Amino acid sequence: MNTRSRAAGCAGRLPLVLSVISAAVHLNASAAEPSLLDAVVVKGERQKSFAPTSVQVGAFRDQDPLDVPLTNNAMSRELLDAQGAQGLFDALRNTAGVTRSQVSGSTYDNLSIRGILVENRGNYRLNGSLPVINLIDIPLENKEQVEVLKGASSMYYGMVPPSGIVNFVSKRAGLKPVTSLTTTVNGHGGVKAHVDVGRRFGGGDAMGLRVNATASREENGIRNYEGKRGLLAAAYDWRATPTANFKLDLEHYRKNVSEQAAITLPAAVAGVVNLPRVPDNKTNLGADWARYDAQATNALARGDFALGDAWVVSVETGRAKTSRDRVYTTFQNYNNDTGAGRVNVSVLKGQAYTNTNHRVEAIGRFDTAGLQHELTLGASYNRRESAGWRSGSAQAAQNLYAPVDIAEVNPTLAQAGYPSEIRDRGLYVYDRIAIGREWQLLGGLRQTSYRSVSRNATTATSYTADKVTPNVSLMWKPVADLSVYASLLRGLEETGTAPLSASNAGEVLAPAVNKQAEIGVKARLMKSVMLQTALFEIRRPQTTTISGVFQVGGLSSYRGLEASASGELGRDLSIVASAVVLDAEISKVGTSNAAELGKTPENTPKQTLSLFGEYRLPQVPGLAFNAGVYRVGKRAVNNSNQGWIPAYQTVSLGARYQTQWAGQGLSLQANLENAADRDYWSTAGNGLLGVGAPRTLRVTAKLDF
Questions:
Q1: How far apart are the first and last CA of the chain?
Q2: Where is the TonB-dependent receptor plug domain (predicted)?
């Protein structure tokens, strides 16, 4: 079997999985009949690049992005460092189609991809597996890479909407010891310190430990906003034997800040929502005592076991828990001209969300009838629980354009949120078949057994689903650095959980089937630039709010063209660019929301664009300048398209200098976000509006010991 043929059949995860189990076994195997472990690669330290060469998400874990028959984007540590990324949206703004939804992002980032909400309890994953809960800023300090696998991912992850999976890859101890101290200050008075320590130890450096710790005082320039944030995380790995490898990830983080108030939509007049003028970007209509106090603990354990040369068995188990107390302020019933209105202050106590996740998986390679197979067999179990909470509210006068201080309120609390539980079990099979030298057929089936129960004061609502959904892709690789693919996917998804603004808040809606088709081309140029382009169509259930009730109200379709480029254009210039043109339409409605037929789903832009580049000055070694521009097209404020928030674009600027100080590595960096200090509506959805953040200068110093 020649190298090219073997690569076609082995383009999946197995060789890299085996490489971390044993870098020494069978390295001198017989050349006459190569064994599975002949493909083992001993991986050294990562190369700094804006274009990672492997992803760690879903059924494509440990694969080259060229071999993934879906649109995927990976933001490397080098890119995140160059941008001085502080939060989730900072990382994902480099990805086409990503927008904020509902909230402005000062407490956490609620996001949509291609106009479809990224579900906060199922679509965010740690190391390709554990569903972490995105109701508090997910830390980046202990992450090596952030990835987005766009579209339907139900075959591997179960009940998730087809917006995409956002995956966080942990930093781990490498061959080179790491000890660094990073301090960051911003122009509003925020201060952060971050310590990162990594070591390998034990016989033959069989064990590795990476510890990250962060503490910060939070200030972002928004009125009445202040607080603190902390992180403690550890990533441990152990090559126990030549055929067994173990990993353990633990992270705990907390954030306690004043929450920025949301702005409700004005009532429609004659079928039109007239928006107020955009307030100053430092505006906060809430109070400094309106706290958002949240904490999260995530734990994930994994074991990989080689069964001879042909099979690897992986076992994973994990748990994620997030709890929060929240004083949530909404501004409503206001006059567009004068800004006079009222705030509703909701005090929410005892919100808690827990995900428990287990997976067992076997990956093997074999030949049948001249075809090479890489077969994945797996079973997964996910239980998601939401505790009940108590709530009370009060109102006070406020003004959109001339905010006043609000006296602290202590309303009587009553039961408002009720417990819910979701159980999602799945069995799946996925086969990558090499047909000759250039073709691969990828096919999979998932059998899902699903049950959800959500309760209110008097009744319980339950849904069940048992269904088999298929996935099939065909890939052509005429040369090693070019792939052309076509994919058809079907998946079950939870259609959503009613938001706090709905009268049925907390209710889990019925599951439904979504469908996706995609054709695309991927290429790697000059061994360092990754290009992707794809045409896609997604059809899924459409949620809407009718008479205050959040419900499924028809179907929507999303057709689009997406393109991206990332990597190094020579020695001195690195770029990451992406764009999407989207045609989204509500294609089917019920009798009670007939006015939405043919309209654009709320908060869905027709185009987004991002471009970021860094230029390293040849004349001054270690000095680099960067700049980025990010554009989001206009978006409808509701499904009836009664109003639109305008398109906006922001600009970022930065510089960094890497040198030596007292024999140690020193990096000095400055990043300026929203450089023009624009006022703009950053988000819409669920009857809410959010304002973009003010201009922010961050200065960072990192010392490597």
A1: 47
A2: 66-164
Domain residue limits at 35: 3-704
287 HSE (CA, 13 A, CB side): 19
What digits encode the pLDDT tens for the residues 137-191?
999 999 999 999 998 888 889 888 899 999 999 999 999 999 999 999 999 999 9
Q: Is 703 helix (H, G, I), strand (E, B) or coil?
A: strand
* Cβ neighbours of 325 (radius 10 Å): 17
- The burial of 451, by beta-carbon neighbours within 10 Å (0-12 exposed, 13-18 middle, 19 or more buried), is given as middle
Neighbours of 73 (CB within 10 A): 26
Q: For position 26, what pLDDT does the model report?
A: 34
Mean pLDDT of 190-206: 97
Of 78, 113, 99, 81, nearest to 650 (Cα)? 99
- Are 442 and 432 spatial neighbours (Cβ–Cβ below 8 Å)? yes
Burial class (CB in 10 A: 0-12, 13-18, 19+), 149: buried
Lowest-confidence region among 83-97, 122-136, 233-247, 494-508 = 494-508
Q: What is the DSSP letter of 286?
A: S
Within 396-517, residue ranges assigned H as helices are none
Rounded Cα distance between 357 and 306, Å, is 23
Angle at CA of residue 404, ends 398 and 407, nearest 5°? 85
pLDDT by residue (tens digit) across 274-317?
A: 999 999 999 999 999 999 999 999 999 999 999 999 999 999 99
C-alpha 118/C-alpha 134 separation (Å) is 10
Contact 444, 488 (CB under 8 A): no
Q: Which amino acid is at 23?
A: A
Give which of 5, 88, 143, 149 is closest to 532, Cα–Cα: 149
- Number of domain units in the chain: 1
Please give the biggest Cα pair distance in the chain: 83
Residue 623: in which H helix or E strand, if any?
strand 623-632
Chain position carrying tokens 């071999």: 67
Given the structure tokens 């003004």, which residue do they identify?
Answer: 399
**Tokens linked to 7:** 């690569």
Residue 45: band (very low, low, confident or very high) from pLDDT cuts 50, 70, 90: very low
Distances (CA, A) of 693 to 225, 287, 289, 636: 12, 17, 20, 21
Alpha-carbon span 308 to 326, nearest angstrom:
53
What CATH number should be reported for the domain holding residue 71?
2.40.170.20
Query: Rounded distance, CA 283 to CA 694, Å?
Result: 9
Cβ neighbors of 266 (< 8 A, separation 6 or more) are 273, 274, 275, 276, 334, 336
Beta strand pairing status for 529-546 and 511-525?
antiparallel
pTM score, two decimals? 0.92
Q: Going by C-beta distance under 8 Å and a sequence separation of 6 or more, which residues neighbour residue 31?
A: none
